[in-house]
Write a structure and sequence with these properties.
single chain; alpha/beta; Spore Coat Polysaccharide Biosynthesis Protein SpsA, Chain A; 11 helices
Length: about 290
C-alpha cells in the first residue's frame, strides 16, 4: 500500500442558487444564512481548519462576493468596534479574517457539483484535496473531515463520508454498493448510483453525504464525464468510474449531521447549536417546554 500524500487544500463549492430558501436568498447567498451566530459557510471553513487544512478554495458564482468579503480583513470595522468598547466583537471580526488562507474561482455556468469541483483544478494542482459542502453541517467531537483524512492517510484513494438513509428520502442521494472492511464504520466502495428513482433501486442504505477526500486523478475523470441526471456533471458519476478502477472508501462518521440546505434542516441545526450555546440554551429549553402540546 503506497503512502498517502498530505492533504493541504479543501474545495468548498458555493455557486448554487439556493432556490429552496427564496425569497431570503434573492439578494444574499444561502451560504450566508445565519446559523445561531455564524453564517453556514463559516461552519464548513472552521471544520476544514480544525481538520488540518491549510488553504480553502471557494468555487463561486456571480453575486457571491459577500462570501469572500466575510472572510476578508476589515480594519475600519475593528477600529470602530474598539472605539465603542466592543473588544469581544472586534476580536471575533479579526478571528474570522485569520481563519485560513482563502482563494476563489468562478463557476461560470451552473453545471453541477462535478463541474464545480473541476473548476478548482488549477488551484488544487496535482495534490489530493478535500471537498466540503456547506449545506451539510456536521457536529462531531472529531471533525468529520478529519475522520476522512485519517483514513486517507492510512489507505490513500478517494474517501467519502456516509450514513444510512432509508425509505423514499434515499432518492435524493448518491447511493453506494459497499463491502464492509475490518471495522463496522469503514467500507470499500464497489459501485455508486446517483439519486436512484426508488428505494428498491438503491444498492444499499449507505449514501454519500457532503464530505470527500479526493485524489487528483478525479479531475481527468470529471473532464470526460458527460452530463447526467438533470443535465449536470455529477461528481457521483466520476466517483463510480474511479471506484471501478481504484480503491475508494466510505467512512460511517461519528457526529450529528444536519441538511441545512433545507428549511427543516436549518431549523433543526439552529435548535441543536442554540442548545449548545451558553447564552441561548436556557431560552430554547424554556420555549420548547412552554409550547408542548
Amino acid at each position: 500500500m503506497r503512502a498517502a500524500r498530505h492533504v493541504r487544500k479543501a474545495v468548498i463549492p458555493v455557486a448554487g442558487l439556493g432556490t429552496r430558501f427564496l425569497p431570503a436568498t434573492k439578494a444574499q447567498p444561502k451560504e450566508m444564512l445565519t446559523l445561531v451566530d455564524r453564517p453556514l459557510i463559516q461552519y464548513a471553513v472552521e471544520e476544514a481548519v480544525a481538520s488540518g487544512i491549510e488553504e480553502i478554495i471557494l468555487v463561486t458564482s456571480p453575486g457571491k462576493e459577500v462570501i469572500e468579503d466575510h472572510f476578508d480583513a476589515n480594519p475600519e470595522l475593528e477600529r470602530e468596534l474598539v472605539a465603542r468598547g466592543k473588544q469581544a466583537e472586534a476580536r471575533a471580526v479579526r478571528e474570522v479574517a485569520e481563519l485560513a488562507n482563502m482563494v476563489a474561482v468562478r463557476q461560470k455556468k451552473p453545471l453541477g457539483l462535478g463541474h464545480a469541483v473541476g473548476c478548482a483544478r488549477a488551484l488544487v494542482g496535482g495534490e489530493p484535496f478535500a471537498v466540503l459542502l456547506p449545506d451539510e453541517v456536521i457536529d462531531g467531537r472529531v471533525p468529520c473531515t478529519r475522520q476522512l483524512l485519517d483514513v486517507h492517510a492510512g489507505r490513500g484513494g478517494c474517501v467519502v463520508a456516509t450514513q444510512k438513509v432509508r425509505g423514499a428520502a434515499i432518492a435524493s442521494y448518491g447511493v453506494m454498493k459497499v463491502e464492509p472492511l475490518e471495522s463496522q464504520w469503514l467500507f470499500r466502495v464497489r459501485g455508486l448510483v446517483e439519486k436512484p428513482r426508488s428505494a428498491g433501486q438503491a444498492p444499499s442504505p449507505w449514501v454519500i453525504v457532503g464530505r470527500y477526500v479526493l485524489e487528483p486523478e478525479i479531475f481527468d475523470i470529471l473532464a470526460e464525464t458527460p452530463p447526467g441526471r438533470g443535465g449536470e456533471i455529477q461528481l457521483t458519476d466520476a466517483l463510480a468510474r474511479y471506484a471501478a478502477e481504484k480503491p475508494m472508501y466510505a467512512v460511517a462518521f461519528s457526529g450529528e449531521r444536519f441538511d441545512a440546505g433545507s428549511k427543516a434542516g436549518l431549523l433543526r441545526a439552529t435548535l441543536h447549536f442554540a442548545g449548545k450555546n451558553a447564552e441561548l440554551s436556557r431560552v430554547v429549553r424554556t420555549y420548547l417546554k412552554s409550547n408542548k402540546s
